[in-house]
Amino acid sequence: MSFAAAVNGSRLLRSLAEFAAIGATPAGGVNRQALSPEDRAARRLLAERAQARGFSIFQDEAANLFVRRRGNHDGLPAVLIGSHLDSQPTGGRFDGALGTLSAFEVLEAIEDAGIATVRPIEVVAFTNEEGCRYAPGCMGSMAFAGLHAINEWNAAAAPDGTHLAQDLADTLAALPEAMIRPERPEVFAFIELHIEQGPVLEREGVPIGVVTAVQGTKWLEVTLTGEAAHAGTTPREFRKDAMAAAAEAIAALQATVMVVDPQARLTVGRLSLEPGSINVIPRRVTFTIDIRHPERMLLADLEEQVRTTCAMAAERWRCSLEIASRLDMAPGVFEPVLTAAIETACQTQGVAYRRMTSGAFHDALFVNRIAPSAMIFVPCRGGISHNEAEFVAADDIVQGAATLLDVTLDLANRNPTLRVMT
Ligand code: HGY
Ligand code: MN
Ligand code: MN
Fold this sequence. Notes:
The protein is α/β, with parallel strands linked by helices. About 35% of the residues lie in helices and about 25% in strands. Strands 1, 2, 3, 4, 5, 6, 7, 15, 16 and 17 form a 10-stranded mixed beta sheet that branches. Strands 8, 10, 11, 13 and 14 form a 5-stranded antiparallel beta sheet that branches. A hairpin with a 5-residue loop joins strand 1 and strand 2. The chain is elongated and about 80 Å long. One manganese (II) ion binds near residues 95, 130 and 386. (2S)-amino(hydroxy)ethanoic acid binds near residues 129, 137, 360 and 361.
């Protein structure tokens, strides 16, 4: 049976609007970057909401924030639901926030309905999913999964010069009511609801995506160093032009990578150069490359192609080359028992769905290393995301929460002796 009717759609829409006001940008998006004052304000609002409902709140050393509703067998591993609250600098109101607030709505709906669950349920807001202020992304979920200690990134510097260690300490201290849990709680299963951030669901008119896998991602930071020289007096054969080398490498990659393989993704998202004077040949150029592919081996081939192309351009323009890896996420496949549970919830509710791979990375990719995980996608207008125009229709918001609710209740009441999903 379905408990979809327990979802309070207007409460969820109000909640989304209130969180969208934190870090709101004039163009209608949000700038709520990880560990910023805006991020701290959003975490506080969630914590206060949780305490007002009698839920307990915790954080861990990575400042991942948890909201817990007890289960009848409270010692059993919890069902974890949630996403992230941090955003891109010119981000949308739904990326991350929709999954986190829909998860909180699920907790409130279950509480309102007076439903007792066998297992405890926890909502999580993972720290720094986006990775735009402090690379890499998914820091909180990687730390939660034990893949990295958060203090490995202590020295990471934000463009405004602050360092992660200080921002993390300030963020933890800003929520003293949330006790820092030394140990990671055992997780029975993790379900993350998120906007698709692509056009497929909207184009097909399907309200729910059952995400079975996430493609792999690598971030590289390329630095070409030549020699500053006079723009007017220096003939081509004497130039050590870092910008010419960068432009040549980027143009070559953009002309081949996604043309040869439509599944591949290559993005140059950030570029800076020195000295930046109109009549000086650039001495140094640094740019980022985001490459993605569903196949691990083909992603490795893409990295090799980037390295080779940059090396050839560097040689042609007599520049030195450094390429640093900033993020390396292998593709992941989600737990079939969980994707089946999402499909069952859709069938029970009579809602159309389709299985799909995620083009974006998500926290679920890392939680999946330590507990069975899966994702639910909802459509976003035009597939636009990482853009202030990001939008999700109210019906899709409510349907997403209703699907998440039924899946959560299913898992929270699964055979209590079952320690492992399958
Ligand atoms: O970049 C990503 O895939 C994620 O949306 N941060
Ligand atoms: Mn996201
Ligand atoms: Mn994002």
